[in-house]
Every structure is written in structure tokens, then in C-alpha cells.
Amino acid sequence: MGRKWNNIKEKKASKDANTSRIYAKFGREIYVAAKQGEPDPESNQALKVVLERAKTYSIPRAIIDRAVDKAKGGSEESFDELRYEGFGPNGSMVIVDTLTNNVNRTASDVRAAFGKNGGNMGVSGSVAYMFDHTAVFGIEGKTADEVLELMMEADIDLRDIMEEEDGVIVYAEPDQFHLVQEAFKNAGITEFTVAELTMLAQNELPLPEDAQEQFEKMIDALEDLEDVQQVYHNVDLEE
């Protein structure tokens, strides 16, 4: 699979470090997850996943507690989960997941972010078929062989496992997220550099320098939108 998840997360975290954007996005996502079920991660698997992601991004406890308390307090605020698909320069592919309380505003904003940066919106299904819904975990202090043995003992078949300079990245079926997490925790591993459900491109697309610069501007414009939670793409930005 080849995605360098630690590097990708660090780049995004660095970009968000000087703003409150990432806190606001997690606050909204935690609120929605808590609102849809019990506001207790032990009985609400969706909330448990979001909280694990928040932990890897060092989201302050106050932000988490505020969002959960808002859900407990019976807030009537509601959000729709919408996915947009589109194309960027040189046929690059992009998926945009949103949480919105104003569908018309969000659709207009996402369309504009594509259009002003050399891209265009696609119809539902035009891009998603080239991505796989995947559980991704990153840990430090273990080798790939050691992690593979842990997963085999837990009777978990992984999609892939990669050893990087600072740790191991594990790829699994999305419905095995909690099984993989529990297998790690049973082995005394409770800290993850990555722990999330994502849309992973089946193939990565390299772009020439000018197209890559335009593509990055488009991704920045999409991620800057208030209603956008996640942006996935198939472009290799590691070069």
C-alpha cells in the first residue's frame, strides 16, 4: 500500500497547529458520534473510534468533554453526513467527507473549492470505487514480525503491514478496527501514532511540479472549509 501515514499525519498536524480548526472539526465529529448513540465510548463504537483519533492528534480533554457534554445535554443541533467526490489536476481523484447543518452552503463551498483550483465535482460513485475503506494503526517499539505474530494470535488477518523508520503501520479491514485495537492493548500497547478509519487510494498518482502545486492549493481550500471533516485523495505528495 505504501502510504507513509506518520509523515502524512505530521504534515497535516503541523499545518493545523496554529489554528483552532482541527479542534472545531473534532468537536463537531465527537458531538455527532455521541449524539447518535450513548455518550459513552464503551457502548458507542463510533464515538470510540473518534476519540482514539482525537488522542493521536493530541486534542485537549476540554474539547472532548465539551462536545460530549453538549450531546448529553440534549442539544437539538443536528448535522448531515455528506460525501462529495471530484477530480483535480491531471485526473487526480478526491473524496470529501463533511458534517453540515446547511447542505446548500456546503455543496456550494465544496464546488467552489474544486472549481477555483483546476478541479471539478463528480457524481456519487465516480471516484470512491478507486478507494478502499481501511483501518490504519501506527505503533512504535515493535517490528513488523512481532506485530504480525500478535495479530495471528488474535486470529486477525491483516490487509498489509509495513515497517517504517519510526515504527510499524498496520492495515486491516474496517470492521476489524476494534479487534486490532484490542489485540494491541492486550499486548500492552495503548499509544498509537495513527488510529483511524480512512479511504485509501488503490493506486497513487504522481503529478508534475506545476500540477502538484495547484492540487495542494485545492486540497488546502477544501480542508479550510468549516464543514469539511476529511479529505482523501490518490496523489503521491511524498516526493
Automatic annotation (TrEMBL):
It is found in: Cytoplasm. It comes from the Bacteria. Keywords: Cytoplasm, DNA-binding, Transcription, Transcription regulation. Its main location: cytoplasm. One of its GO terms (molecular function) is DNA binding. Residues 3-74 form the TACO1/YebC-like N-terminal domain. GO terms for biological process: regulation of DNA-templated transcription. Residues 80-235 form the TACO1/YebC-like second and third domain. The keyword Cell membrane does not apply. Signal peptide: none annotated. Pfam families: TACO1_YebC_N, Transcrip_reg. InterPro entries: Integrase-like_N, TACO1_YebC-like_2nd/3rd_dom, TACO1_YebC_N, Transcrip_reg_TACO1-like, Transcrip_reg_TACO1-like_dom3, Transcrip_reg_TACO1_YeeN, YebC-like. The keyword Transcription applies. One of its GO terms (cellular component) is cytosol. Belongs to the TACO1 family. YeeN subfamily. PANTHER family: TRANSLATIONAL ACTIVATOR OF CYTOCHROME C OXIDASE 1. HAMAP family: Transcrip_reg_TACO1, Transcrip_reg_TACO1_YeeN. This is Probable transcriptional regulatory protein I858_009920.
